[in-house]
Amino acid sequence: MKRAWVYILQCSDGSYYVGCSTNLAQRMEQHEQGTFSGYTAKRRPVVLKWSGETNDINSAIAAERQIKDWSRAKKEALIRGDWEALHELSLSKEVKTRRTKNKRDKG
User: Fold this and answer.
1) What is the pLDDT of residue 25?
2) Model pTM?
3) Average pLDDT, the chain
4) What are phi and psi of 22, to 5 degrees?
């Protein structure tokens, strides 16, 4: 199968765009030129902040959908490669509440 990439762009307005492609260089050029009307065409220039390679386009599409649903803070942790923060941001509210309560009870 053909390799594919999932990527995060930062737009000129500071927002993030998440996408995927089997040809990252070509797709970046398309974003930069505004080839397709859409989100990034109105927010150029764009800067590639993060990309990850996958084994195939289906994996890239699945990763894109997952990352699109993430909070801005979680996307920024991924961009920084801050795996500890990414893990903490991924915990459910219930787990975070339980951890906070346990720390208070012990302290």
Assistant:
1) 97
2) 0.85
3) 93
4) -90, -10
